[in-house]
Write a structure and sequence with these properties.
The chain is built from two helices and 23 strands. With 356 residues, it is mainly beta. The chain folds into three domains: 28-163, Sandwich (Jelly Rolls), CATH 2.60.120; 175-264, Immunoglobulin-like, CATH 2.60.40; 273-349. The strands form six sheets. Strands 1-3-8-5-6 form a five-stranded mixed sheet, with no helix packed on it. Keywords: Signal.
């Protein structure tokens, strides 16, 4: 007998997962030296804290150390530099936090804080710092409130993104607003070169802010700059919102001229109610109100009352809903005295569920 061997196909499934190794600059000894105008990419995942190399008292509530890493930059000249943080991809919405220090590495007693920023979101932002030539500075970058982030970092002579504002926490109670908050601001003399304004809006559950309006800087009939401006936004969802108005300058970084927090609360849900037609009766009228199931003529509810300014013209519909009643007959007797009674009846539909 001729044997025929059959080859059974074998299916091999490969499951690929993406993990990030601990970066070499997790410890301060391995800090990455940044070069001007040379962006680097990094990740806070799997980073740890060298507690001997940080001083929480210096940064206070601005920094919550969890998964930090270290960089160093030595300016080739004195002046203002911009630390640009961009391309953030984070596990949560909070983004990264940055502290810029002078001092000797891992000697916290020598540290001096030049800048401390907690972003609170994943916008492309810049931090402006004034530095001395030839002096090394330490940059400590961490995920804000234990967030894990990938990001790009660059020290540049050009600001990229928007100014890193105080988005990490609400500094004061937000103004409770209707759905159309009104922003008002004034263009200061120091920013008279501005050409336009950008209105940024950030809802705190979202990863990034949005540009919701661009307004030109105006001149009046005399050729002078108009100083006062306003913009009214329209909100469609409840939440806590931060607005920033930026003055856009031709040869300088954009500047914040207004920062304002607003809160739009969700609508209050009121129980569905059955309206009673009491408006036709004068104050002081003695009434008997009876409500019947329109289908079975069963009495469901009755009250005797004297109408006054505080009399409610509606009653909760929950009882009728629970009984499965869909239509009711409302009978109202107006007792006018001397044995005279006037009766009125209407049929009404029981409202379903709850009404906003």
């Amino acid at each position: 007998m001729r044997l025929i061997k059959k080859l059974m196909p074998v299916v091999v499934c490969l499951v690929v997962t993406t993990t990030f190794a601990q970066v070499t600059n997790d410890n301060i000894e391995g800090r990455l030296r940044l070069l001007l105008e040379k962006p680097v990419a990094s990740s806070t995942e799997n980073c740890t804290v060298q507690w001997a190399c940080v001083n929480e008292k210096l940064t206070g509530k601005c920094i919550d150390y969890h998964n930090d890493q270290w960089f160093e930059f030595t300016p080739p000249r004195p002046g203002r530099f911009y630390i640009n943080i961009g391309q953030q991809i984070c596990r949560d919405t909070r983004g990264v936090q940055l502290v810029v220090l002078s001092g000797k590495p891992c000697e916290p007693s020598t540290y001096r804080v030049l800048s401390c920023t907690s972003l609170g979101n994943q916008d492309d932002v810049f931090v402006a710092v004034d530095l001395e030539a030839g002096k090394p500075y330490l940059l400590n970058l961490d995920g804000y409130l234990h967030d894990f982030c990938r990001f790009s970092l660059e020290v540049s002579q050009e600001a990229k993104g928007i100014p890193a504002g105080n988005t990490s926490a609400i500094t004061a109670a937000p103004t409770v607003t209707a759905a159309s908050p009104l922003l008002k601001w004034v263009l200061p003399d120091s920013l008279s070169a501005a050409q336009q304004f950008k209105v940024q809006r950030w809802e705190t559950s979202q990863p990034k802010s949005l540009t919701v309006a661009t307004l030109p800087v105006k001149r009046n009939s005399f050729g002078d700059f108009v100083r006062a401006y306003q913009y009214q936004d329209s909100l469609s969802a409840a939440g806590v919102y931060q607005y920033q108005v930026l003055a856009v300058l031709p040869d300088a970084a954009p500047a914040v001229v207004l920062q304002q927090w607003y809160q739009l609360k969700p609508p209050i849900k009121r129980p569905a109610a059955l309206a009673l037609p009491l408006d036709r009766y004068p104050t002081g009228a003695q009434l008997t109100v009876m409500i019947f199931d329109a289908a079975s003529n069963r009495l469901l509810w009755s009250r005797q009352l004297v109408k006054n300014q505080l009399t409610e013209n509606a009653i909760p519909a929950a009882k009728f809903q629970q009984l499965g009643v869909q239509r009711v007959r409302i009978k109202i007797q107006h007792h006018k005295g001397k044995g005279k009674t006037e009766t009125a009846e209407i049929t009404a539909i029981v409202p379903p569920g709850n009404a906003d």
